[in-house]
Amino acid sequence: MINRKINFLAQSGLVPESLAFRLACTAEVICRVINGRSLPHALSTVFSGMAFSPSTRGAIQDISYHVLRNLGLVRFLTEKLTRKLPEPLLLQNLLHCALVLLLPENGILRYEPYTVVDQAVQATASIRTLSKAKGLVNAVLRRFLREQTDLLKAARQRPEACWNYPAWWIDRIREAYPSDWESILEVGNMPPPLTLRVNRRKSSTDAYIRLANSAGIDAVAIGPCAVKLAHPVPVDKIPGFNNGLVSVQDAAAQLAAPLLNPENGMKVLDACAAPGGKSGHMLEMANIDLLALDCDHRRLQMIHENLERLGLKARTKKGDATKQDWWDKKPFDCILADVPCTASGITRRHPDIRWLRRPADSQELSDLSMRILENLWSMLKPGGKLLLATCSIWPEESEQQARTFSARFGAQRLEAPGQLLPTAKDLIDHDGLFYALFKKT
Length: 441
Description:
Helices cover 46% and strands 15% of the residues. It contains 18 helices and 13 strands. It has helices at 2-11, 19-34, 39-47, 54-69, 71-81, 89-101, 113-126, 134-155, 159-163, 167-176, 181-188, 205-214, 256-260, 277-285, 297-310, 353-356, 361-377, 399-409; strands spanning 194-198, 219-221, 226-229, 246-248, 267-271, 289-294, 315-318, 332-338, 380-390, 412-419, 423-424, 429-430, 434-439. A hairpin with a 4-residue loop joins strand 11 (423-424) and strand 12. Helix 2 (19-34) crosses helix 4, helix 5 packs across helix 8 and helix 10 (167-176) crosses helix 11 (181-188). It is found in: Cytoplasm. It is an enzyme of class 2 (transferase). Residues 184-441 form the SAM-dependent MTase RsmB/NOP-type domain. The active site is at 391 (nucleophile).
């Protein structure tokens, strides 16, 4: 499908820097997400079809994230503005992309409304299979502009349109967190901060903030090694990034290494290690014998690249954390089990997750995670520590999992944060992660 679309885009006559071209590309990206692909995969596939300038790539990515953070609302609007949902799916998503750009963000519109309508019509006319629908697109968008006050008021009465999550997701959040559910959903719809981890082998948070300020970048410390930038910047513009001075890592994710607190000479396993952020943090803390395990060759390459940038070394191995065929039978002093989960705590970074997950996923992943924990526990030395980490906020993947594991294996539970809910404040700004620390007695 993508080759057909890319051939069209190359031959459409649309200027790649135009909004019409970007709307057409973004509609294709959203189609791929709706059909089950992750947003990064969908973007990568579309971008691989032809040459895109950095500004065009950035705009398509930005609009894609914006659509997925507002998908419940634009679906509702499309339903109300048409007698029946337009077909094919590409046409629906082209309308979704245009509608989202007609919605103000913090009271500000990204484009003038007449520009959005004109460019959406041009995009539709340029797609051979959609060209007959250009009148429909024009009528729908203009009607929205006339009736938007009433339409947006009606949307607030529909949970999926109001909160921009599937109805089952909203219900589950309300049940699990009756006092916090609204704030959890709100934070999940916010663009995430750019948080850095300062490499303690090379600098300190205070010194790095001074370096950032000297480069015209406002930054503030929000953890022992965590520095949040006031405004996100491209990675290649982050002072010291290429030299391993800092890494991009959420403030909550930076808690894992200190919880395990590896010491010089220890043998440590980072299971499910890619992309290697937590591995790098542990190596920054101590001179350890670290094995980074992952089941995917490409993800192992990411670990290599990250550690090379930091000037650190670890052993890496391709292996399944539910099996032992990769293990040398020498027990570990510490194990980090960052187990597979629904990633329900990081929706502000990955807004596609809410639309890709299904209600049964949580239990299926919990079962897989328990098999991993049982397997890794047998590899831990007596007196050793195992850290269970997830980026989920569903209790069956976090607290319930920790209690079941502790009871089943007699694991002594040590002090750890437990469930961290996603939070967006000036000095407390992090994703929703869970930590449980166990000692093998």
